[in-house]
Design brief:
- It is a single chain.
- This protein is of the alpha/beta class.
- The chain has one domain: Rossmann fold.
- Helix content is 22%, strand content 25%.
- A nine-stranded mixed sheet has the order 1-4-5-6-3-7-8-2-9, with helices on both faces.
- It starts with a strand and ends with a strand.
């Protein structure tokens, strides 16, 4: 089931949770993988969905049209089907800024922060709740600034030589540094 998060205002005493405070990233590992077509992008999404757990944050970066939303759709479908859910329609959250999907042991929160005015506006979208109870897919994570947790996976998608080809550069920070070894050769 798709849910659009209702607008929520942070109160004057709003604070970040420990997971939402930036800190030293500690261990980091980079893996690169060529993606020949949309099926390869979906395959990477399935691989990452297999590794993801409640509380994980996955930042999706790249130019407009690089495949961030395509990856997110494939991840959400893989997460849901892996845990016995049905394939869902996965619209882009460009205008709603966040969509929540309940298929699985933890909800997937899909954020598109492209239109975010300032990092603190993420509190109104429920970013603290997402970091604590779900798996967060965040397009344009750099707009969170210091609210981005130190323990997360960054997936940077760049255009390849052919129209559907992409190059994925995964940077695992914290626990993700050990997990992404399975996803490709170190870059």
């Amino acid at each position: 089931m798709i849910k659009s998060k209702p607008e929520r205002r942070a109160g004057p005493g709003a604070r970040t949770s420990p997971r939402a405070v930036a800190g030293a990233s500690g261990t980091q590992r980079v893996v690169e993988r060529d993606l020949a077509d949309l099926q390869a992008t979906a395959g990477l999404a399935r691989d990452i969905a297999r590794l993801a757990r409640r509380g994980d944050v996955i930042g999706l970066t790249g130019d407009l049209g690089a495949g961030k939303t395509t990856f997110a759709r494939a991840f959400i479908r893989a997460w849901s089907s892996r845990h016995g859910g049905e394939a869902e329609e996965v619209p882009s959250p460009t205008f709603t800024l966040v969509q929540i999907y309940d298929g699985g042991p933890a909800p997937v929160w899909h954020f598109d922060l492209y239109r975010l005015g300032k990092a603190e506006e993420a509190f109104e979208l429920g970013i603290e709740e997402a970091f604590g109870e779900g798996v967060s897919l965040i397009e344009w994570p750099e707009l969170l600034g210091p609210l981005l947790p130190a323990n997360y996976l960054e997936l940077r998608l760049t255009f390849g030589a052919l129209p559907e080809a992409r190059r994925a550069r995964l940077t695992g920070r914290g626990t993700w540094a050990g997990l992404i070894k399975e996803l490709g050769a170190d870059g």
